[in-house]
Amino acid sequence: MAKSKRKGTLNAALKALLAGAQTSAAIKIPATFISEMASLPDNEKKVLAELSQDQFNELLTQAELATINAADSAATGKEVKGLVQKLLVKVDTLVPTKPASAERLVHNLPYLSIGNLFKGRDDELSKLTSQLTGDKPVAITQAIEGLGGIGKTRLAIEFGWWVWENKKCVDVFFVSAETPEKLRASLASLADEKMLGLTGQKEDEQFDSVNKWLMGNSRWLMILDNADTEDAACAVEDILPSLASGSVIITSRYSRWSGAVRSQQLGLLEPQQAKQFLLERTAAHRVETDSDEEMAERLAKELGYLPLALEQAAAYIAGNQYSLAEYVEEWENERQKVLEWYDPRTMKYPVSVAATWQRTFDELKPSARTLLRLSAFLSPEMIPDAMFRKGIEIANKAAELQCKEMNVTKAGFELKEALSELAAYSMITRQQKGFTVHRIVQEVIRPRIPEADQQSWLELALKIVDNFAPTKSSDVRTWLIWDDLRPHAELIAQTADHAKITEPTSRLMSVLDCYLSAKGIYNKAEYWSRRALEINESTFGPNHPNVAFGLNNLALLLRATNRLDQAEPLMRRALKIDDATFGPNHPNVAIMLNNLAQLLKDTNRLDKAEPLMRRALKIDESSFGPDHPDVARDLNNLAQLFGATNRLDQAEPLMRRALKIDESSFGPDHPKVAIRLNNLAQLLKATNRLDQAEPLMRRALKIDESSFGPDHPDVAIDLSNLAGLLADTNRLDQAEPLMRRALKIFEDSLGRDHPNTQTVRNNLKNLK
Predict the structure, then answer these.
(1) Global confidence as pTM
(2) Which residues contact 759 (CB under 8 A, 6 or more apart)?
(3) Residue in 228, 235, 102, 220 with CA at minimum distance from that of residue 160
(4) In sequence order, what are the residues at sequence separation of 6 or more whose Cβ sits closer than 8 angstroms to the Cβ of residue 568?
(5) 422 with 372: CB under 8 angstroms?
């Protein structure tokens, strides 16, 4: 604007300003501002036109506009525009008597609020509403991020209704941002007569008109929905400068935003909230039963507390007038059919659960698709990154299969790239040691693999897990891996078994059995032990070393659970197989000899047990030398037998030698060391050296609690032994709680009728 020497007196220039708008009040305005204010949108001109002269004068004063006069250097156009905007902001705060007709409320929200059915998002909604609680408009630019179906759009819409009902903004706009083209078209459509009523016939003209309006106004909220791809996110970021005057909420599965966009991650519903949603959403439409509470809880868990899956289930139940139990049964038997079901009228969602992630999957590069497909065969628990690093060659084969399907040039598997891309699209959740994939995503991904390739993908996933599974799973030092791997190993082994894949399925089952047995989880271990043995007998025949291995594992479990009559024939058969396969002096034979000797000792056949123990010791010393852990095991077993036959003077040096070997081999804090400490302590107690025995018992207890946790059967043995020593030294008040704790552990892990349980129960009675 050119500089002006005109005095700042008020004059009758309103007609020029309003460009035809009518008013009943004679309002004068500084001529300096006429040209700038004449370009305002019609709705803002109307607001000014309906003010009285006194109201207008007060606005001019408060907005610091009435001070410009001939003595001032006239403001530039940019400065005037800023002052005019400041004046418009003052309208609401300075003119409480403004007629209601001056406020035009417009929205295009696509769905009604669901009211009390909007569960579990109070904190997230509060974070949004807190930014618009003041009287003055505050511009916010925020992305609500998360997995498809997590409820991002619903949260944004509920926020939009809160803004609308509380009149925090004059206008609330809902704009599709799925693609750059949809974003532009959706923005242009706001020029429609029912919305802003702006000029322009062609899309480009309407877009420019809307863009100009948005830059010139501030009291509006815009929801940019489903900016889920990199292209869509870039298009949104490109238009953000022109949206700086108002407030913008972006919903997106994509998470790579610039620093100008604040992120708000949206998680799954809490179990109780998910359960209540199912009950309330289906109320008056479902067949009610006495099991509704239980079924709702179960179904919510099955659906992984994912809002879209819960809504689809509820709409399905209500539409078919099912009971919750009927839906659960259908979910279990026809999962894919249920996931594909879709009713847009009742669900108010553009696609079914099954189709929710397909568009995102189609955006992914080969490595990301490969990782997601392999993970779809695993548990929804945390998946270790290290499993794919170790199995990189197997993953490369899967990537080749994926590239062939996509008809693209073969490329190697890139784990870091895959993790980064999947996290960016909210398809996985990163954790310290790995990542998780939602169970419903897995349910959707698996059946969409081409049918001809289904078995190949399953076999590759199985090999990835088996390759990562440590063989010596009974060794506590492998449990950092096994504790994370267990849910994936159990699921993939079961799936592969149903698909009749025998190898490496049976091997994985066997090491699962050893791991679970070592942890004292005997009921689950037995299932895997028996199934692995069945597969190996069917695959290799009755006399194969793999069969002997399975027989031995099952026999050890039966011995631990006091089924000695069932264990013995299995041990004898395993010994016979290995003796025939490897010869009489092989270390595998020594293992079988030792195990059978222990069972004979348990059944008081000590004269038959001793020669087997001595033979095992001779084999291992000859095979490994005098300081091997297997030799320590043999020494310990023989020493125990000496103790049982009152040859304590012969037993003690063997025990001390076994302890020394294991401390040297495993370190001072290994469970095998705890076994040796306990046995030596029992011998010291038997020879009335209680002061020497007690510290060994306490050390053994500390090792086992640290290794196995507080509720393991080995911990119960340690507690019982220590309690017995405390009772012998007349410290009954200290002994009783240890004995009670040991009794509970044995009852929970071995049952009320196990000999260990009965022994401790009797010892507890004798304390009183």
Answers:
(1) 0.74
(2) 720
(3) 220
(4) 555, 596, 599
(5) yes
